[in-house]
Amino acid sequence: MNLQSHYKVLDIEPGSSLADIKKAYRKMALKYHPDRNPHMKNAEEAFSKINEAYKVLSEYAQSAEYEPKKNNDSWTEEKTQPGVKKSDVKQTHYKYSLLLSLEECAIGCSKVIHFYRTSPLGKKEEVRLEVSIPKGVKEGQKLKLSNEGPVLEDGSKGNLFIYIDVLPHPIFERKGRNVYMDLPISISTAILGGKVNVPTLNGKTTITVPPDTHSGHIFRLRQKGFSHVNSAASGDMLVNVIVDFPEDLNEEELNALKVLSHKTPPLVKEYYLKLQDCFINRKR
């Protein structure tokens, strides 16, 4: 697949900046993620093409050369994010923005990064490094790689700082060391109870839903969240129940629900008692 095809996959113009490439990738990844589209045909194939397009275009863009700019920013781009930024004055280190999934942040991973190292005489050297990312890293965190930066005037090398950037997840949301998710369940499961499979950051598990479970009930899965970097202690996973209702019910199904309409649920009963007290207090 050529570059033009990759631009088409991400629905962006040829020559788009890395910032635009990353923005388009985030949008398309969320739209076609297989976990969000279990009934979509070829969702996995489309998601694979999106990932490949992002990989190719980001490497191409970060290896492209840009003219230095004189401005108030002490950094001017030789390569836009994710990639190395070059100092407008004396280079002593590089910055690199690395895009990770939430799962990669949770369990750690190994990534190969690509950039060009420039010497004081202007000589460019292509660099590919395999970087070990520890479990527990988070958005904006900085990792330091000593002696992997620019070549300095005395022949030594500066440092390379890798800044973590995280893709939005279709199911999970991270808050500190805990991870949160909404779990839709059918009204029949809410009333009768049952077992529901749920994903975790490194696999899946089963939750037993007790009878008469309401929306807003929280299941806490211990030690299923994020750890601190270089720490064995982990946060929890909190699963918020949302009771969902079927659509397009036929007449027989609607009649069955009408039978239930004569039974007042406890929360509804409690609400009307509070409402009654509210109006009584207003009259006093």
Key features of this structure:
284 residues, alpha+beta, Helix Hairpins, HSP40/DNAj peptide-binding domain, four-stranded mixed beta sheet, elongated
What secondary-structure arrangement, pairings included, does this model have?
Layout: H1 3-9, H2 18-32, H3 43-63, E1 75-77, E2 85-87, E3 93-100, H4 102-107, E4 109-118, E5 124-133, E6 142-145, E7 159-166, E8 173-175, E9 178-186, H5 187-192, E10 194-200, E11 203-209, E12 218-221, E13 237-244, H6 251-260, H7 266-283
Parallel strand pairs: 3-7, 9-13
Antiparallel strand pairs: 1-2, 4-5, 6-7, 8-9, 10-11, 12-13
Helix pairs in contact: 1-3, 2-3
pLDDT averaged over residues:
82
Strand composition percent = 25-35%
Total number of helices: 7
Gyration radius, in Å: 26 Å
CATH topology of the largest domain: HSP40/DNAj peptide-binding domain
Judging by the overall fold, what is the CATH architecture of the largest domain? Sandwich
Give structural notes.
The chain is of the alpha+beta class. The chain folds into 3 domains: 1-64, Helix Hairpins (Orthogonal Bundle); 80-169, Urease metallochaperone UreE, N-terminal domain (HSP40/DNAj peptide-binding domain, Sandwich); 173-256, HSP40/DNAj peptide-binding domain. Helices cover 29% and strands 30% of the residues. It is built from 7 helices and 13 strands. Strands 8-9-13-12 form a 4-stranded mixed beta sheet. It has a 3-stranded mixed beta sheet with strand order 3-7-6. A hairpin with a 2-residue loop joins strand 8 and strand 9. It starts with a helix and ends with a helix. The model is unreliable at 65-83 and 85-89 (pLDDT under 50).
